[in-house]
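worker-3 :: picked Integral membrane bound transporter domain-containing protein
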Amino acid sequence: MRGLWREGLSSAFRTALACAIVGCLSLYTPPSVSAVISFPAFSYVAAILIIANHATLGDALRGCCLALYATVQTMGPAIFSLWLIGPGRLSRLGTAGAVAVAAFVVVLPWPYSGDLMVKRLALGQIVLVYVVAYDNGVHTDPVMHPLRLGASTALGVLACVLALLLPYPRLACSQMKESYKLLTKNMLTRLKIFKKLISEEDKANAIRLISEVKFLRTKRTKLFSLIALYQEGMKWEIVPFKNLKSHWLSLIERVEEVDTNLRGMELALTCTNSFTNNIINQDLKHGLNCLEEHVSLTIKQPKQGLRGASLTVPESNAKDITLFLQSFQTIPTTHKELPIFFFLFCAQLLHKKPFTQAPTSSHHSNRNENSHKGKQKWANLIATLRNTNFIPPIKSSLSLGLAVFLGLVYSKENGLWAGLPVAVSYVSGREATFRAANLKAQGTVLGTVYGVLGCFLFERFLPVRLLSLLPWFIFTSFLQRSKTYGPAGAISAVIGAVLILGRENFGPPSEFAIARIVETFIGLSCSIFVDLIFGPKRASTCAKRKLSQCLGPLGESIGSLSLLAGETDLGENLKRLKTQVNELKKLVVEAEVEPNFWFLPFNSVSYNKLLGSLSRVVELLWFGEHALKFLQQEFKRCGAYEKEDVNMLNGKLEHAKELICSSMKNLEEISRMKFVEKKNNPCDLEAGKSSECNTCMVSSGLGEDGIEETIGCFLQVCRIVVDNLHGDESEKEVKSQVVLSLSALGFCLFSCIRETIEIEEAITEIVQWENPSS
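worker-3 :: C-alpha cells ->
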C-alpha cells in the first residue's frame, strides 16, 4: 500500500506540475506571448497524453520528437490547403471533408508514424486547425493559425519535460532499477516457497503456499509490464551510454530466463498432490538451498555486470549443485514421480543456463549489420505499402469526419469537442467499442462536473482554481489503475476538469460543460456507429473463430515433438501458437465486457478455462523443446540413432503425439462446424464423432488408466535407452542430464494429454452452451 500511494502521489504531482506550467504560461504571460499559444486546451491535452501512464524523462523526450513529427506531418498540408481554399469559403460539409481527407492521410502507415502518440496528436491538430478556421471564417490567418496550434502543442510538450525534471528528474533508469529490485525479491520469495512446498505434508498449508505463489506471480506480471514501459524511455535517456544500455538489457534477459524456469517449477508443484518420500531427503533440501544461493547471486550482481566482470558464484556452491543433480541416475517408474523430476530439470536449467553478456562486435561488423538493416527497412517499407490495409484509414476518416459534421450542426462554436475526443483516443486495432465509449463518456462527465463545481466555489480566485486540480489528479491517478475505469476513463476525467479549471473567457462554466458533454456524446456515438459498420462481428464471435484457429497450430506444435535430429520445426510452430493464444486472450477480454443486447451471453468461464490450458501447453512445449534439443545432441554424439531402442522410444513418442493430435483435429472440426457454419450434422460430443470426423478424443479413447499405461510404456523404454547408452560410471553427469531430460519430456507429454482433456471438456461446455437442445 505504501508503494501504491507513493506511485500515485508521484504521478499526480508530475501531472499537476505539467498542467500548472501550461496554465501559468497561458494565463499570466504578456498578450504578445499568449497570442502565440492561443490553443491552451490542446496544450493540456498534449501534456496529459504524454505524461500519463508512468511517464519518465525519457518518455517526455520521446514525446518531444513524436510531437514534432506529428506537427510537421499536419501543419504543412494544413497551411497549403487553407491558403488554397480560403478559410472564409469553408462550410460544415467542407470542413468535415477536409478533416476526413487529412485523417485518412495521417493514419496511413507512413515510415516512423506507427506510434499511437503521433497519430493521436496529429488527428487532434487536424480537428482543431480546420474546425476553428471554419468558426473564425475570414478572420483566420492561413499561415499563423496552424503555427499557433503548433506552438501550443510545443508548450504542452515543454511542460511535460519540465515536470519530469523538477524538483528532481524522474529517470527511466532509476525506475528500472527499483522495479528490478522488486522483481528479484519476488523471484527469490517464490523459490523459497517452492522449497517449502517440496517437503510440505499438510495439504492445507500446501494450498496456502500455492495461493501465495499465485499472488506473487500476479505481482511479477505487473513488474514485467512496468519494466517494458521503462525500457522505451530508457532508450532515450542513455543513448550516449551504450554500456549502461546493454547492461540493463542483459539484466532483463537474465531475470526473464530465471522467471521462465521458476514458472516451470511452479507447473511441477501444481500438477501433483504430494511427492514420493523416497526422493525427498536432506540431499534434495541441501541442493535446493545451494540453488537458491546460486540464483540469488546471479540476479543480484548488477555492479559486476556494469564493470564488465563475469558473473560468478562460489566454486563450492556450483560443485554442490552439480553433485546433487548427478545423483539422479534412474528414470522414474511411474507418472507420479514425474513432477519432481521435471522440477529438477527446471533447476538444472537454472544452474546450467549461461548468464553472460553478449559479445560486442567489431566496427566492421556493425557497419555491415547497419547496411543490412537499412536495406531490410526499405524492403519492409515497400512490402508494407504493397500490402497496406486501407480499412483503418477509411474507418478513422469516416468517424472523425462524421463527428465533426454533426458536432458543427449542433454548435458551431463548440463543434471541435465532438471530434477531439475521437482523435485523441485513436487506436490501431480492435477494442471493446461500447465499453471504451462508456468509460470515456463517464470520465468526461465526472471531470466536467468537478470542473464546474471548482469554478463555482473559486470563481474569482484563479490560483486557487488551479490548486484545486491537485486532489483531482491524485484521485484520477488511482482511478486509472482500477478495473472499473482504467486509463481511458481516468484520462477523460482529467481532461474534463482541466479544460474548465485551467482556462478563462470561455463563457459561463455550466453552459460550456453542457455543450462539451453533448458534443462528446456526439463524437463517441459516431465512433461507435462507424466501428459497427466496419466491424460488425462481435468480439465473442471473433473469439470463437480464433479458438478454432488456435487448435490447428496446437496440433502442429505437438506433432513437431521428435527425437530425430533435424526433423522438427517446433520452435516456429510454438511461436505461431503463442501468437494465436495471445490474440485469443485479447478477444476474450473484449468479449467479457461486451454488452449482450439480444445475443447469447458470453461463456467467459469456459473460455478462461481454455486459455489457462492453452497457456500451460505453450509453457510445457517450451520446456519440451529444450529437453529435445539436448537429447538430440546427445543421441547424435553417441550414435544412438542406429540403435533399435531409440527408434522404439521415438515410436512411443509418436503414439502419444497421435493421441493428442487426433483429438486436436477432431476438436478443430467440431469448433468450425458449430461456431462458424452452424450445421445441424449429428455429433456425439463425448465421443467426438460426427459425419465429418471419426477419430476419438483423448478423454473417450483412453481414460485415466489408458493415459497412465501410455506414459508408463514410454518411461519403460526410456529406462532401456539410458541403461544402454550410459553404463560407464565416468559419464554420471551426462547420464543425469539425459535422465532429467527424458523425465521432463515424459512430464510434458503426460501434462499435455491432461490439458487436452481439459480443452475437450471446455469446448464441450461451449458447444452445449450455444446448442442446448442439440
